[in-house]
């Protein structure tokens, strides 16, 4: 099965559709499952006044799917980010269908998708809200806070029954996946301010990874591609893929060739040739090139 993973969509559904069609043509096989790592923006109305002001220049194409004017052909499952249609997601804390073939996974948990065990944690970390209850997203402030995960979400995914987890979906990078000696850091990480390195990401992602020991971790949020591996003394390694937003497929699309519920090879963008095959190393050298200008991303703020 060919699995496609998309970075922060930010409403660009039509573009993602064209990528998936091109990937199927390049690989000469159908995409069986699509996963998205948050900031999908499933607004049912294109002119929804609740869209974040800084995001209103982004497309709001999901309204075509919500209304039935357009159909998303592939099964898409996504985690929540910090820019979402939070009122709609609030109705489905355990996950739910927002349009045919478009499925929100929920705040935190794990399930089997197409025979493969997938775990997830929606949202980003806010230290002042982590231990507080989540309020209904009915005002500008509570909608912003709806994009933060809470302690109960982290506890839930960490408490998932033991077993082989192939994929873990996060929106925000886990803190601790990169170090100062990384050459990507010396190159100014292409979009992340040097002052943030190596402390980018949240402190709760790594304990979740440690509890589940997934084969792969997939995340977004910072709009910067990055690749690395976490090594364990008592388990196979965990490969981490950080995706760019859905602007160019070279870094905003990642594909996985899954056989018997295990990833056998993987690659970036529309290139049909794998960047990685089973048994090969996965480190910063496998990071996709970022083609956009080097700027400090708004998403990191």
Q: Helix count, per DSSP?
A: 8
Q: Beta fraction of the residues?
A: 15-25%
Number of beta strands: 14
Q: What string gives the helices and strands in order?
A: EHEHEHEEEEHHEHHEEEHEEE
- Return residue spans where pLDDT drops below 50 for at least 5 consecutive residues: 180-190, 291-301
CATH topology value: Purple Acid Phosphatase, chain A, domain 2
Q: What is the CATH class designation?
A: Alpha Beta
Give the termini distance in whole angstroms. 37 Å
What's the overall geometry?
Answer: globular
Number of domains: 1
Strand order of the largest sheet: 4-5-3-2-1-12-13-14
CATH homologous superfamily label = Metallo-dependent phosphatases
Please give the CATH architecture.
4-Layer Sandwich
The structure class reads alpha/beta
- Radius of gyration, in Å, reads 18 Å
Quick check: average pLDDT? 88
